[in-house]
Amino acid sequence: xxxxxxxxxxxxxxxxxxxxxxxxxxxxxxxxxxxxxxxxxxxxxxxxxxxxxxxxxxxxxxxxxxxxxxxxxxxxxxxxxxxxxxxxxxxxxxxxxxxxxxxxxxxxxxxxxxxxxxxxxxxxxxxxxxxxxxxxxxxxxxxxxxxxxxxxxxxxxxxxxxxxxxxxxxxxxxxxxxxxxxxxxxxxxxxxxxxxxxxxxxxxxxxxxxxxxxxxxxxxxxxxxxxxxxxxxxxxxxxxxxxxxxxxxxxxxxxxxxxxxxxxxxxxxxxxxxxxxxxxxxxxxxxxxxxxxxxxxxxxxxxxxxxxxxxxxxxxxxxxxxxxxxxxxxxxxxxxxxxxxxxxxxxxxxxxxxxxxxxxxxxxxxxxxxxxxxxxxxxxxxxxxxxxxxxxxxxxxxxxxxxxxxxxxxxxxxxxxxxxxxxxxxxxx
Length: 429
Fold this sequence. Notes:
429 residues; alpha+beta; 2 domains; two-stranded antiparallel sheet; 10 helices; 9 strands; 39% helix
């Protein structure tokens, strides 16, 4: 005979009883207050009980709290996956070879991840990186800029969400006021006075969390109306924390880029022939146009330094001396003299970083160095220098190791420069 397991003793369930409007008769609905949500926008009244709510003939529902449509950092396609081993997914054999790989900023580790479309992370060794993204510093720079764009979009979305919440709060107050009037708790004049009072507080205390009634104190629920904590509600509070975290991550990535940039220069010009050298000793150089171009560079940088946009760089051209204004010398300014960034690790860029980058792009296109002196290219270089001067010093340091196509210029300027110098945005449209 098989021994049977004795049946468990039948006793009352320890599970908490769920209180609903259709509970058996005898349930004390007076212990339940409405709104069920802890959010209450009209204070200074006792909680509305469930029986009172059910006695309202129309029983309208309160307006729903608006949802926030979340955003994510924009993925950037940087290459293809290599011929990886087959693996099984959802009962299918899957070959992940040569699929698009995307760079996604990683806010947890202040770096980035390389992900396939399905979300699988890959090490850089398993990725055929596009030539624009082979440099680790470039990838870090792109990740930082992607987070900056995400922070901007998220800030705008949060601002819009707060405006939506303000509209919702007005609707919610009107709903609560109508319920109080219908129950005979308040007169229309009294509720109108409360609404006017709350409107004045709306900017700094839009949400109330908890209950303010004396009857609720027995249940251990205390009023919580601190305007400096959950004043915007749980969703908006979480979004504000995320914005702060993203800002800290951007700062961390920027500091990493600054440290990397201090360790060396941007890549040198390629196989530069004698005809590609910006020097008055170059017989193929259009010397007259070069002098005009060089003087414009010096004037522009000197003006930026005098107006405080950039610091006084060691080696900056002294126009008063070089143009013969000092000592009565009539000697014309000579391009071979000391120019911008002639000292230390900046010796490769005698005419400033933007001009160096333009020269690099001209060489990449196998165009003559004299093309730098065309009016259209000079105008674009002047515009890029203006934007460059407006950056913070650490941003200018970071750009020293970044190709021109990755510079986060304004969209219109970037488009014009790209059309003339023959490159498109690595990030697509």
